[in-house]
Each structure stands twice: as structure tokens, then as C-alpha cells.
Amino acid sequence: MKIKTILVTQAAPTDEKSPYFTLASKFNVKIDFRPFIKVEGVPGQEFRQERIGILDHSAIVLTSRNAVDHFFRMCKELRLTVPETMKYFCVSESVAYYVQKYIVYRKRKVFIGKNTFQDLMDVIKKHKDEKFLVPCSDIQKQEIPVLLDKAGVNYTNAVFYRTVASDLSDLRDIKYDMLVFFSPGGIESLRKNFPDYVQDYTAIAAFGPTTAKAVRDAGLRLDIEAPLPEAPSMTGAIELYLKQADKAKAKGAANATKATDKAAPKVPAGKPVKKAVAAKTAKK
Fold it and tell me: Could you report the per-residue pLDDT of 111-123, keeping only the tens digit for each?
């Protein structure tokens, strides 16, 4: 089945140079964007009941922009002044850059991983004397506490925000050739909004092992799992899939042509087809 329409379960990119737009142009596919989940902050009053002292920690682990936003939101709600000595460990450069929305780099200490939490662990291990606070959602990636525990790091997980299903009733039905998911919450939202959803020929793409597991646990077929060694991004994995699909289609067409040629009557060179067939019939 040729992929003509793709639904990405995230907000549309604001960058005109987004690889999604390049992908759409290159393969002549229509790509729509719609967040399947939304983030709601945990109220400060509710957070107090957890008895977690934010200022008892000397370092903050930030794994996403949501973690950044809700950490500083919570501090504001609790009327806490974060000391300039606080250290920030960011999973990627994009998250570290986003932190500048709230702090001044020259006055704070910011440590950056290459791209994944495993990469960031290499940095965290060099600062084992710190007491880390990990602002997270109610659906945290399983690898984070596992890696921190394995490294013997002194840390506290703290739920600062929750992911909840978006209202997708206006979509009525999911009629796309491909659905792209980035979190288990997206799969939960699909099931909540469309309890009778049947996948059929729709391809499903998932980013990360926890999302891939959620797809399988939901009884759905996983067609694309990113990141891949040869395609570390979601768009790269989709492009690889589309290329393979085009090759398979071209190969199928070539095989069909060969089969047709093989089945057709062989005509001697220079002899019209009709006469050759007629002569063959006359002999019978």
C-alpha cells in the first residue's frame, strides 16, 4: 500500500526547514499534525503533600522542555528562589538552550548530554556528590530511574506535570495511511478516543522502546521503530520505510512484467503477431 497521508501525533513544527516538510515534498505525501496528549501541571498545593524539598537538592535533571517549564513554574507557585549555585543537567543542547528562558548562563552551571539520557549519564557520573532532583511526568521513561539506580546516584523523582489524552472527537475517525507516535500516552489517547479502532493497513511508527512496547501491548502492528542505527530521527526512519516501500513496489511491477512476457506467445522475428498466432491455431 502506498503511503499518501501521514498523521504525526505532535504539534506542527514552527521551523519552515523542518525535515517533515522536506519529507512531504520529496515523497509527495500529505502530513498533518495533531497532539494526541496534552500536559497539565501538578498544582503547587498538591505537590506540597509529597513533602519533597526542591531546595534540598543541588542539581536538577532536565529531560525535556516540559520539565524545564514546570520546574520553574512550581518554584514560582511555591515562592521559592532558586540559588545561583544550582546546577542543571540537560539531556540535549536544545533543552539547555531552552533553559535560558529562565536563567542566565553566566550565573549558573549547565551540563549537557549529547542527545539521549544514556549520554547524559556519562556527565552525571562525574558529579556523584550532587543530590539530583528529576522533574518528570506521571509517565516517566523507564530507563531514567534504572540508569540512575545502577550508577548509585542520589536522586529524587518528582512528578511536576501529567500527560492526559486530548479530545480528538472532531477527527471522528483515523483515516490515514500512517500514524506516528512518540509516547505511550499517545497510544492511550488513541484507545480512549477511538475504542473501536482497527488498524487494518495503516502503518504505525513509534519513537523509542517504551512507545514501541505500548504499540505492541495495545495489540497493534508496529511497522516503524525509531531510532535506527542508520536513521536516528523519526523522519529518517519514515524516509527509510518509504524508500523501501517504493523499491518493493518497483520490484513487484518488474516481476509482473516478466511474468506477462513469459506467458505471452513467442513470435519469430519479423513475423506479425496475428499471423503467428493464426498459424499456430491452424496447426491444431
Answer: 998 878 889 999 9
